[in-house]
Amino acid sequence: MHHPNHASWGHSVLAFTFLLGIAGGTTGQAAAPAVVAADQPQTISLVLKLRNQPALEAYIAQTVDPSSGSYHKFMTTEAFASTFGPSPADLRTVTAFLEGQGLKVEEIHTNHLVIRASGTTAQFNALLNTQVMQHTDERGRAYQQPSRTPQVPAHLASHVLAAVGLNTKAAFHPHVVKAQRAANGQTGEGIPAVVLPAAGAVATGVPGSYTVGDVANLYNINPLYSHRITGRGRTLGIATLASFDPADAFAYWKAVGLTVDPNRITQVMVDGGSGTDGAEETTLDVQQSGGVAYDAKIMVYQAPNTDAGFLDLFSRAVSDNKVDTLSVSWGSAEAFYDDATLAAYHQVFLQAAVQGIPVFASSGDSGAFDLNRSFPTPYFSPTNSVDHPASDPFVTAAGGTTLPFTRNFAHGTVVVPKERPWGWDYLESYLVTNYGQFFYDANYFPVGGGGAG
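-> structure tokens emitted (453 positions)
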């Protein structure tokens, strides 16, 4: 999700807010890795291959072609699984092999694309030709990682696309951008005052700015309300890697003058659910999406921030087939994914398309320089990489906008004359002149996106 500073108006598909914080904190020395105990329990997800993917893509194209007899004839999960998922014989082959290795098949997703299997570290080390190691990051958080990319056994290579789950390091970020202080501590110059239109008839812009009423005005949503398009009869799906307190959302909707169904939120825990790191992102997504579509139901799918968790999150949400749209405000630089893992996600997004579920993802806050989101500030990587899953061709990527403003800062005036794509490059001259080229390159140049829509 995009957070604005210096009058930048940023958004993911669902969430809009102001960023008031300044990034900070200290880093420590990470501990040396150690071998994970051989008998420690592990659970992985095996992603199976689609059958006849070209035919699936061709049918998807027909479902959105008004001249086709298959226009809007979307599939159920069961129809997708039987037509394009692994065959029953393929499923039996994979499950029998796993059980023959002493592993337990815990779950098969209804799309037949994901098999969850449990065993010990030693069993998976042998199965996937790797060594699971225990690590501690700079913040003292423990995680495990395989010493090398898990290799699918030759017996399964024709059926299995990828094996994930041995890596528990938090790899995905909520899309939050924070302005940095220069070495002299002089960038805290305040948030420019942006003049907003009056709040709409549905919700107020009080308390604060960039609430539901403001969003309805800025994105011209009010005409939909006049036609009674309020989300009634629809269900919003939110995929997230952090928990939230529904009470916060209900308190927010009440504060902005909305009356909503007290039973509208359903939480679905995938792979045991998520932790709290990034909860503000989930809260914001629920509040703003549920405020704009105030009559819609909301299903919030929550999973651990791990390689398997993120993939299983989409597989479960799409396979449940209960949401009308699915949105996510988390991601990571596409450069960090191997081809097999990207293909595994793509399969699930194809499934969503053939079932008529649009998937929306925040495009990230660093444009083509998404690698900068993965390193501590100050850092600048000129290597290009966009954000995934927004980069998938079957996902709609949502950027943000910068609102017009004029502001007198400590060392001069900055003017943005009209609304424009989200980014901080309009500050380049001011920041380079007053804080130096490196400060601008490391903290402000990478920030941006392709605009709303």
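Confidence is low (pLDDT under 50) at residues 1-28, 183-197.
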